Amino acid sequence: MSGTAEILSEEQMAVQKQLMQEIASREDRPRTYHIVTYGCQMNAHDSELIAGMLEEMGLTPAEKREEADFVLFNTCCVRENAERRALGNVTWLNEVKKKRPDMMIAVCGCMVQEKGMAERIIRQYGFVDLAFGTSNLYRFPELFLKALHAEHVVVEVSDRNTVAEGLPARRARRDAAYISIMQGCNNFCTYCIVPYVRGRERSRKMEDILREAEELQAAGVQEVMLLGQNVNSYGAGTQASFPELLQRVDALGIPRIRFMTSHPKDLSDRLIEVMAQARHVLPQFHLPVQSGSDRILMRMNRHYTRAQYLERVQRLREAVPGIGLTTDLIVAFPGETEEDFADTMSLVDRVGYDSAFTFIYSPRVGTQAASFPDQIAPETAKVRIQALIALQEMRQREAMRRFLGTEEEVLVEGLSKRSERFVSGHGTHGVSVTLPGSSRDIGTIVKVRIEEIKNNTLLGSRQEET
Ligand code: SF4
């Protein structure tokens, strides 16, 4: 176990399990729940764990938040926008609660861990019943029970770096599942709030991860995604490493394995080697570059240069030909000059990503970069993001041409938005694919011949089923 992780004992977990049963047997408990999730896959998975606990407590899902007895907002604070949206929605729900006073409203996740947020919730959002941070997730049954009849909002935030095993999960999909392999981050990129709200890195034990993967495999899951803020440093300070974990998950025989996120500075030759040899790890890689300028990368505290990043891209492409590459990019980081921005543009042009998440820098109180004096004017940021998006879209269309005439194995996720006679999913390289089909195909892997590109989606015809 790495860092200052506190591994929760079986006894601690048993207490919470017992409380779930106790709540399930109570007459006065809420009957239905609805969870609103913001942010990344880690949050989406946390919501699955909370839904699992709620169902053990006897609650059933409600489709609409305004109809549910218990509504939980699982928040994100990586960008100011996400935070504003979450708080706006919490305020809106209070209007419903005024008509249905028994409704319980809860707020959890990264935003609650932010400095000063707990006090703000008490001060400004007194109608909220329960607010708890990421490290208290395993104590949800206990907190829920406390909030059931509390006069005031129950707030629980701590900076403990906990690792909890054995929480029930209600997975959003039956065919694909997240497996959290670690929590937290030690990197302190100067723009990022995550290390402050999710705590220090701590990895789960390899046996526990493998057991979870085996259980999912036995339940018929076709795809697993290994999740961590920086999976490349899984097991740091111990004998375990991410390449070894990936190799062992690959050996289980689950058809498709993905992972995210990888910090470029920790992307080792060994991991690239394992990917090249693996039978089930998909040929796709999310490698956030953030900027193409060495000067900005240094100010961001990213610990790699543009040349080192490009070298890793080249190594990946040599080892796994045709690999799908995606990235994250920030424009208008404090002090970004026209020249720095031009470096980002030229890097994007050179790599030719299959897709990119592009963001305007958003200052987060408490991070180093928020106090940098040379913040960029919003008008400049807007011009830059538009130019970057236009370039990325053009390069993306060009990159996608390599799939024309090839075959992709697609895990069908749902009916296409275009027509009920089509279904869509993601191919092995991570690109979205639409094909003829029906709801019967959902959750199956179909071989597709790619024939056309339309709006960043590949269109194709079915070959034989795999
Ligand atoms: S690696 Fe950097 S960007 Fe990613 S979570 Fe850690 S601090 Fe944030």
What would your notes on this structure say?
The strands form six sheets. A six-stranded parallel beta sheet has the order 3-2-4-5-6-7, with helices on both faces. It has helices at residues 10-24, 41-56, 80-99, 110-113, 117-124, 140-148, 194-198, 206-218, 242-252, 269-277, 294-299, 306-319, 338-351, 378-400; strands at residues 6-7, 32-37, 60-61, 70-75, 104-109, 130-132, 154-156, 162-163, 176-180, 182-183, 202-203, 223-227, 256-260, 284-286, 324-331, 355-360, 407-415, 422-426, 432-436, 445-454, 457-465. 36% of the residues lie in helices and 22% in strands. The chain is globular, with a radius of gyration of 23 Å. Helix 8 (206-218) packs parallel to helix 9 (242-252) and helix 9 runs parallel beside helix 10 (269-277). A hairpin with a 2-residue loop joins strand 20 and strand 21 (457-465). The chain is built from 14 helices and 21 strands. It folds into three domains: 6-161, Rossmann fold; 163-400, tm_1862 like domain (pyruvate-formate lyase- activating enzyme), CATH 3.80.30; 404-465, Nucleic acid-binding proteins (OB fold (Dihydrolipoamide Acetyltransferase, E2P), Beta Barrel), CATH 2.40.50.140. It is an alpha/beta fold. Iron/sulfur cluster (SF4) is lined by residues 185, 187-189, 192, 194-195, 229-230, 263.
